[in-house]
Write a structure and sequence with these properties.
It is rod-shaped, with a radius of gyration of 42 Å. It is built from 4 helices and 2 strands. It has 135 residues and is of the alpha+beta class.
Length: 135
């Protein structure tokens, strides 16, 4: 075991790349490579694919008249390595409270004192019939 951990979707990406490689070889065989032995080019593309992996994209292949095989490619970054999109710097439209209407507090003369509240409560209690009285 090599210890290499394959990222999620790696095998699907590799299968897709290999299919793209085959399509590229078929296009070359129908065009510039018509009637030529493409086995060396196919072997070279396989070798390049092993080197660049699933993130490599082979864009062009060529078998030169002297027998040299050529493949052009680039490597895409890993999906996890792609930079995250920049956060939007503009703040969303959120209503902002600039003032709060607070009702005025009653003056001290308008509020009953503690002893007045107790006296009113005691008077009400005397005037209400108790359960024992209603029997």
């Amino acid at each position: 075991m090599s210890g290499f951990i394959k990222p999620v979707g790696w095998s699907e990406r590799l299968a897709r790349r290999k299919a793209d490689d085959e399509r590229l070889l078929q296009e070359y065989a129908r065009g510039e490579g018509a009637g030529r032995n493409l086995r060396p080019l196919r072997d070279w593309v396989h070798h390049v694919r092993q080197d660049i992996g699933a993130n490599g994209v082979i864009t062009k292949v060529e078998l030169k008249p002297d027998g040299e095989t050529v493949a052009w490619f680039y490597v895409e970054p890993e999906p996890e390595e792609q930079p995250a999109p920049e956060p939007e710097t503009r703040l969303p439209n959120v209503p902002v409270v600039t003032s709060i209407d607070v009702p005025e507090m009653p003056s001290r003369s308008e509020t009953p004192t503690r002893s007045e509240t107790r006296q009113a409560t005691a008077a009400r209690a005397r005037s209400l019939p108790t359960e024992a009285q209603s029997w």
